[in-house]
Design a protein that fits this description.
Layout: E1 7-14, E2 17-24, E3 27-31, E4 33-38, H1 48-52, E5 60-63, H2 65-70, H3 74-79, H4 83-87, E6 92-95, H5 99-104, E7 109-111, E8 116-119, E9 126-129, H6 131-141, E10 145-147, H7 159-185, E11 204-209, H8 215-228, E12 232-235, H9 244-254, E13 264-266, H10 272-280, E14 285-288, H11 290-296, E15 299-302, E16 305-308, H12 328-332, H13 335-343, H14 347-373, H15 377-388
Helix pairs in contact: 6-7, 7-8, 10-14, 10-15, 11-14, 13-14, 14-15
Bound molecules: zinc ion.
Length: 393
């Protein structure tokens, strides 16, 4: 067991919402936190200097095991000294297990007790991912937080289907735990750092709660996951086609029941509204591709809701994307210019829109933390939600 791979302390609470400090072997992460997604070793459209800058100040980003395993491959990253060195990112890194990506392949994959067989989207070759392989790849990547290999069920899965899936996830969690512990003992962690600040210097492992939209299965999954024992706990398999109220009900049921002394991570969710609603229900960590993906397709998140830069009415609009935003893009550029770049197919359009979106997400979380710490979260939540539903003029 590596009980001290990370340390987490809650410093303030308001209702179920909490703000804390997560200490990983690479530094302090203030929570609630949003983790930008670095799918294939890059947070698309962004330089790492920008992520590290005072303006964005991302403390932790996410890497995708599935994508990095297929390309450039585990060996290349191991030879380059792990993912941090390979991509040039000194701060904390969390890697997912690849479970969600292979599940998303749908008909292209076959799930058995042993693991998942699928065809690579890169070269069409047959590949096999299991708890043991996922732990091995994540040890080679040397991420600071490793996720167990899980199986996702569709949001509308029947009780029977969701139970079978949840039970498989539970068995895979035990196998992930055992394989992870063996690898840590064998020193397979490529990103290993010196023990300091009361931390072991080893990787941390998070468990994942599944069970689709069935609350009894979710509760059982949580019990089983806590019984195995992890450094942190995640809610997986949400935002996969279920209705919003169903998602919120599930978070409300599970998050407050998760171990209070450990970080709680809601995987792959969501819009700024979703983040605020999940914080109010007790979640500490988030990741989502929305700010980067939507940035590339011309959509900005603003304090008044979404803005689509393709819209002709912004053709000569001299205002910034968001008049309430102080990011470097909003300080310098107009909607008219950004629209022109987008229409002309200039890569700078994606870069600037992505930057603003990341600034908006990260700044929103900064304000969430401040409001919880000053006992003002309830008001912040109400005003924020009113703002984003008011509509961009
Ligand atoms: Zn901005």
């Amino acid at each position: 067991m590596n009980e001290q791979a990370i340390r987490f302390e809650v410093v303030a609470r308001e209702g179920e919402a909490r703000s804390g400090r997560l200490m990983t072997r690479r530094g302090v992460v203030e929570t609630p936190v949003f983790m930008p997604v670095g799918t294939a070793g890059t947070v698309k459209g962004t330089r790492f200097e920008a992520l590290e800058s005072e303006e964005l100040d991302a403390r932790i980003i996410l890497g995708n095991t599935y994508h990095l395993w297929l390309r450039p491959g585990t060996e290349v990253i191991r030879e380059c000294g792990g993912l941090h060195k390979f991509i040039g990112w000194p701060r904390s890194l969390l890697t997912d297990s690849g479970g969600f990506q292979v599940w998303s392949l749908g008909a292209l994959r076959k799930i058995t007790e042993e693991g998942t067989e699928f065809r690579s989207h890169v070269d069409g070759g047959l590949r096999f991912l299991s708890p043991e392989v996922s732990m091995e790849v994540q040890a080679a990547l040397g991420s600071d937080i490793v996720m167990v290999f899980d199986e996702c069920a569709p949001g509308e899965a029947t009780h029977e289907v969701a139970r079978t899936s949840m039970e498989l996830t539970s068995r895979w969690a035990s196998r992930s735990r055992a394989a992870f512990d063996n690898l840590q003992r064998a020193g397979a962690d490529t990103g290993r750092v010196e023990a300091r600040d009361g931390l072991t210097g080893a990787q941390a492992l998070f468990g994942i709660v599944q069970g689709a939209s069935h609350l009894d299965l979710r509760r059982e999954s949580l019990e089983r996951t806590v019984e195995i024992g992890f450094d942190g706990y995640a809610i997986g398999g949400l935002s996969v086609g279920e209705e919003k109220p169903v998602m919120y009900a599930c978070i409300e049921e599970i998050a407050p029941r998760m171990p209070a002394a450990s970080p709680r991570y809601l995987m792959g969710v969501g819009t700024p509204e979703d983040l605020i609603e999940a914080v109010a229900r007790g979640v500490d960590m988030f990741d989502c591709v929305l700010p980067t993906r939507n940035g590339r397709t011309g959509q900005a998140f603003t304090s008044k809701g979404k803005l689509n830069i393709k819209n002709a009415r912004y053709g000569s609009d001299t205002r910034p994307l968001d008049e309430a935003c102080v990011c470097s893009v909003c300080r310098r550029h107009s909607r008219a210019y950004l629209r022109h770049l987008y229409q002309a197919g200039e890569m700078l359009a994606s870069i600037l829109m992505t930057h603003h979106n990341l600034a908006f997400f990260l700044d929103t979380m900064r304000r969430v933390r401040q409001s919880i710490r000053s006992g003002d979260f309830t008001r912040f939540r109400r005003e924020f939600l009113e703002g984003v539903s008011s509509g961009v003029e």
